[in-house]
Amino acid sequence: MRSIAGRKTHLLVGVLAMSAAVGGLAASLGSARTVSRVFIYWSTNGGLIGRANLDGTHVNRRFIHGLQTGLCGVAVDRSHVYWTSENAKSVGRANLDGSQVDRGFIKGALGPCGVAVSGSHILWADTFQASGFEIGRADLDGKGVVSSFISGAEGPCGVAVDNTHIYWVNEGNSTIGRANLDGTHVNEHLVPTLGGACGVAVDSGHIYWANTGPPNSSVVSIGRANLNGTGVNQNFVKSKYAPCGVAVYAGHLYWANIGQPPNDAGFSGTSIGRASLDGTNVNQHFISGIQAPCGIAVG
User: Fold this and answer.
1) CB burial class (10 A; 0-12, 13-18, 19+) of residue 156?
2) How large is the C-alpha radius of gyration of the chain?
3) Kind and range of the H or E run holding 11
4) What pTM, to 2 d.p., does this model score?
5) Rounded-to-integer distance, Cα 141 and Cα 203, Å
6) Confidence of residue 117 (pLDDT cuts 50, 70, 90)
7) Long-range contacts of residues 274-279, Cβ cutoff 8 Å, at least 24 apart
């Protein structure tokens, strides 16, 4: 499977496929959390987890630092921040205040790219396992690891969860897959994407995903569909900065713009974007000055 660095190079020639959560990526959000305690989190290729207030202020680009490069997805629950690293081949975890960093909280994955948290489990998309592409699952304490919880996915890159289902992006066949929370009734073709999709999120009515395709084309967008796979809108929010990771919270949609490659010197447009849930009030630079963010979570 391509490394994160390889994916970034690949984007220079037109296609980038990464998560979010993954994130890009969706997180389990506790109803007891007050708005004043809610933050935006993002992961970067450079081995950093950033954080900012929900209104985009108090940006900390090095909230958790010193991690291995190749971060690809971030999630949050009431007590912890989680991330995946393709290079470290692990799921990491830290306290919500950034302390007690455990870079190898869950080991054994070969290419984890995207992470989500339910009420009792951590789930991740593994882009490369010995037996194929899979969705892994473990208990919240890191035990009970099942690397092949859902098998048969085609290049999964980004995973999300709601009260009834698990969702993931299939990079290999340009679709979004879905299964019951217990891993049954797998549907690998619930929603089509435009290719190079990277990151998926869900709320009470819709699925959202990042179409991370060639810069300055209609492929670069945030897509949306109903939870049953109908009402597909591939260009729900248009972009030109290669969105990589998507999250939804309290009336807003957020995404990580990994950036448009203008030349060999680096990327432009790297930022966190935000829009209203109806697709209006689009701000591609809600939080700017972030180097190649990939996963995003709010909680």
Assistant:
1) buried
2) 16
3) helix 4-12
4) 0.85
5) 25
6) very high
7) 274/56, 275/222, 275/237, 276/251, 276/252, 277/203, 277/248, 277/251, 277/252, 277/253, 279/224, 279/236, 279/237, 279/253
Domains, the chain, ranges and CATH?
4-298 (2.120.10.30)
Q: Bridge-partner residues for 275, per DSSP?
A: 253
Asked whether the beta carbons of 200 and 225 are under 8 A apart, the reply is no
> Is residue 2 pLDDT above 90, yes or no?
no
**Burial class of 297 by CB neighbour count within 10 A (0 to 12, 13 to 18, 19+):** buried
pLDDT digits (tens, 9 = 90+) for 47-102: 999 999 999 999 999 999 999 888 989 999 999 999 998 888 899 999 999 999 99
The DSSP 8-state label assigned to residue 9 in this structure reads H
Q: Could you give the 3-state DSSP secondary structure of residue 24?
A: helix
Task: Read off the pLDDT of residues 161-179 as tens digits, 9 standing for 90 and up.
Answer: 999 999 999 887 889 999 9
- Element spanning 22, H or E: helix 21-24
Which amino acid type is present at position 118?
Answer: S
